Amino acid sequence: SMNNPSGMAFFGTRLWIADTLNNRIRLYDFNTNTLTTACGSGIAGYNPSLANCTTVFLFSPTDVAFDPTGN
Predict the structure, then answer these.
(1) Are 47 and 56 within 8 A, CB to CB?
(2) How far apart are CA 29 and CA 5, in angstroms?
(3) What is the rounded CA–CA span in Å between residue 19 and residue 2?
């Protein structure tokens, strides 16, 4: 479950959510009705050298944003 979800952003049929106190970015897909972890291992910290988004350490993410092309 999420812990203090804060910033959110829609892109296509997906809602991206900053799951602040779980140190993760979550992804809700309206087509499949599923909630998954898109980014963050759940460990608070900073380790930009890891290439895999699901193993990276995040420190209390508070928002999610996209540019016009979806990056």
Answers:
(1) yes
(2) 16
(3) 6
In the chain, the amino acid numbered 15 is L
- Give just the sign of the alpha carbon dihedral 15, 38, 36, 6: negative
The arrangement of strands across the sheet holding 24-29 comes to: 5-11, 14-19, 24-29, 34-39
Q: What is the pLDDT of residue 8?
A: 96
pLDDT tens, 10-63?
A: 988 999 999 999 999 999 999 999 999 999 989 999 877 666 788 889 999 999
Name beta bridge partners: 25. Answer: 18, 39
pLDDT at 34: 97
What sign has the CA pseudo-torsion 68, 69, 70, 71? negative
